[in-house]
Amino acid sequence: MATTWQINGVRLERPPDHRYGHITHVRIAHASGDFILSRETVITDLEQRYGDRYYTYAGGLRAEVIVVDCPACARGDYITTEPDDTTENNLLDLPRV
């Protein structure tokens, strides 16, 4: 059974051949305490039909996390939030972990 998780922090890394940082890990809010997941785990879950789902929440708005090609380097393993009317709930605006 799939679960929906709130992402409340991110870890970035900028590979030497890239201009911008990429999210490598996310922090997940859980009743028993926060924990860290790799970007690969999140992508695998999102790409599975019945896999876990992820979202962010800030500024009173929830944003679903999706997988897209990186706009800067065309890599297909980039996670972001669905576009909405605020940037407060974007993954890159979350606290660093």
Unreliable stretches (pLDDT < 50, length at least 5) are none
Q: Care to count the β-strands?
A: 6
Strand line-up across the major sheet: 3-2-1-4-5-6
Total number of domains = 1
* Principal-axis shape: globular
The biggest sheet, with number of strands, parallel, antiparallel or mixed sense and barrel status, is: 6 strands, mixed
Distance between the termini: 28 Å
Overview of the structural elements:
It is a single chain. By secondary structure, this protein is mainly beta. The protein has one domain (4-93). It is 9% helix and 41% strand. The longest helix has 9 residues, at 39-47. The relative contact order is 0.26. The mean pLDDT is 88.
Core attributes:
single chain; about 100 residues; mainly beta; six-stranded mixed beta sheet; 6 strands; about 10% helix
Helix-strand layout with pairing:
Elements: E1 4-13, E2 22-29, E3 35-38, H1 39-47, E4 53-58, E5 61-68, E6 78-81
Parallel strand pairs: 1-4
Antiparallel strand pairs: 1-2, 2-3, 4-5, 5-6
